[in-house]
Amino acid sequence: MPGMLGQVLRNLFSRPVTRNYPAEPKTPFRAARGTLMLDIDKCIVCGACEKACPAGAIEVKPKEHLYKYDPYSCIVCGNCVEACPTHCFDITSEWRKPVEKMETMVWEVTRSKERARRTS
Amino acid sequence: MRASTVVPFGPQHPVLIEPLQLKLVVEDEKVVDVVPALGYGHRGLEKGAELNDIVRNIFMAERVCGICSFIHSWCYCACIEELLGIQSPPRAEFIRLISAELTRLHSHLLFLGLLADGFGFESLFMQFWRIRERVLDLMEAISGGRVIMGNCAIGGVRKDIDQDMARAIVKEVGEIGRDLRPPIKAILEDYTVKQRTVGKGILTKEEAVKFGAVGPVARASGLRTDVRLLGEGPYGEVDFSVVVEDGCDAYARTAVHAREVFVSLDLIRQAVGKLPSGEIRTKWKGRVRGEVIKRMEQPRGEMMYYVRGNGNRTLERFKVRTPTFANLPPLLKMLPGCELADVPVIVISIDPCIACTER
Ligand code: SF4
Ligand code: SF4
Question: What CATH number is given to the structural domain containing A43?
Fold first, then answer.
């Protein structure tokens, strides 16, 4: 125990190393994988992200025009970011805030061809 | 004849962070026999990996263990690269080495803290974990993941280390090394620590060979064994010495871990200094066919991967032999004859990782 005395005294007179959370939140690192963001307008409903996702967080249903993303299954691995041909995804360094209710995000999507047909 | 009693140690026990059960047969306060009961943490990862495609398996492999995670993904990617016949660029290999050594560093600091906690030296535990937090910060700054780095990819790595980051790593590694000296001095020289570890859990050199000990457990019994010594990949281009102790007891195992911390710090410094320029990822295409076995040195010892593909989208067989799996028979050899109160320290001294043992 005496070997630790110097360290113990230093600890006694130094500032705490812990942060006063939540008053002082941590500044995230630039590279931190915090939250996955999806720009659904760019999506061509190809399903590549669904195939790439190791956590099964994405479900693409072209026939039903549905795109489902469960942020609470997502492990923010970034595999879908690499797989998406139209760069729909982005990972921000901010961590997701706590929520009261866990909800799957659902979007209505149309395949690009159909969308083109509809608008023409 | 003395009456013997069976005392279950675990699966939930204050010193165990993972569910391992040892049924201790005790006579008075002396342990005379040990029967292990495993299987509490089985997740069916090997089977799961046979259902996933090869890219998604990287994330699966990384989650075999929650501590030595990066080296799992590295070993898996190295297996797939060999089957695909591709080579990851030298810069990627060095970034992998840096990530792997950071993993080893935080794992060893975790061990030293837990060991101190195991015999009630809470203050020392806090000192180690405070410094470990800085290693985790470094890992997050490099890769984006605090423990599960998610940085390894087939054919290289996903995130590069730029000039500023390289400088920051060298600076932080220097400071960590300096700040680690007092707690490491305490754990190696303190009277209380020595009372609890010296002469406890003896595993002689012959027994270490016979029972197939690996990693720090084997090195603490005087065996000079380390997969890194084979010089595969970037380990052939850096200088390092293997820490070997002859004490054969829990103290020697602690000392191996404590001294290896500095070896890892030095390896990181060297690797950052020698970081080659160039690409960090090789492009690849195709499916895997054939089989491969790879070994790598985890913080807890030698790990073995076996991967077999038959040209399908998924793997045909995926098998992992983790270091704690190899270190359990030596543990069962160490325990008989010890005092009941020494069991926690002896169990922790092999740095058990049950989740990865059971996969
Ligand atoms: S980040 Fe990973 S887990 Fe999350 S949706 Fe994308 S692929 Fe799935
Ligand atoms: S990979 Fe991109 S474009 Fe394709 S379905 Fe997913 S989000 Fe849409």
Answer: 3.30.70.3270
